[in-house]
Amino acid sequence: MAGKPGRIHIGVGGWVFEPWRGSFYPDGLSQKRELAYAAERLTSIEVNGTYYGSQKPESFARWREETPDDFVFALKGSRYITNRRVLAEAAPSIEKFFTGGVMELKKKLGPINWQFMPTKRFDPADFEAFLKLLPTRVEGQAIRHAVEVRHDSFRSPDFIALLRQYKVAAIIAGDSNYTQIADVTAPFVYVRIMGTSEDEAKGYSDAGLDRWAQNARDWAAGGTPSAFETIGPAPIGSERRDVFLYVISGGKVRNPAAAMALISRVSP
Question: What is the DSSP string of 115-141?
C-alpha cells in the first residue's frame, strides 16, 4: 500500500436536532449558528433533507459559505428517484436533482447517497439502467455516487460487479441489522455506523471507537478491514481511498461526541 492514505471525513446526519442543544451546542447558541459550530468540530455532514424534498439554491450557497474550506457535505438523493418501481425511468428526476441547486455547494459537494427502501429487490437489468443514468460530471465537477440497499437480494456477486463497473460505492451499514455489504466497489468508501448508546458519554466505548478508527484508516490506506465479510472477489490493487464515515441514528444525542472522538483518533 504505497503512497499517502486518502482523506477521512467524519460527521453526523444533519445539524438540527433539539436534544443537541445543551449537550453538543452551547446553551444560548442561536440556531443560525449551529451549522458553523458543527462544521468547526466535524469534517463532514450528511444532509437528509434532500431525500424528502428540494432545497433552495440559496440554501446550498449559504451552507457552503458557513463552513470551512475543507468541509464536505454528503447529500441523500431524492426519494422520488429511488422509491419507484422502474429505476430506468428516473432520468428526468435525476436531472432535476442536479439542476435544483446542489451544485451551489461547489467543491464542498461530497458523495450522493441513493438510499433504497428495504422492500426494493435487486433487478440486475433495471439497476444497471439506473447506474447508467447517474452523471459522472455536472458543470465540470466530478460526482461521486453511493447506494444504500437494504434487501438481501443485493448480496450478490453480480451486484458487486455492477457497482465496480460504474465506480459506485456500496454503503456499509455498520452496527445495524440492515443488509451488510462491505465490498469496496469505488475509489472511495462510504460508511454509516448506527451503534451509539446514550449510556456511553462518547456514544461508543473506547474499544468501539478504536475499532472504527482503525477500520477507517485501513480503508483510507487501500485495504479492507478483516472483520468484514465480502461477497465478491477482492478489488484489484490497493489504491488509497477517501473515506466518508457518518455516525447515524442509535443513541443520537451522543452522535456528535462519537464523531469528534473518531476525528481525534484518525487525525495525524
Answer: E--TT----HHHHHHHHHHS-SEETTE
CATH 3.20.20.410 fits 8-266, yes or no: yes
- Whether 259 and 250 have beta carbons less than 8 Å apart is answered as no
What does the alpha-carbon distance between residue 60 and residue 102 come to, in Å, rounded to a whole number?
Answer: 6
Element (H, E) at 193: strand 188-193
How far from 224 is each of 4, 165, 184, 190, 209, CA to CA, in Å? 16, 19, 8, 13, 18
pTM equals 0.96
- The pLDDT assigned to 3 comes to 63
Predicted local confidence at residue 155, as pLDDT: 98
Sequence letter at residue 166: Y
CA-based nearest residue to 248, from 31, 29, 11: 11
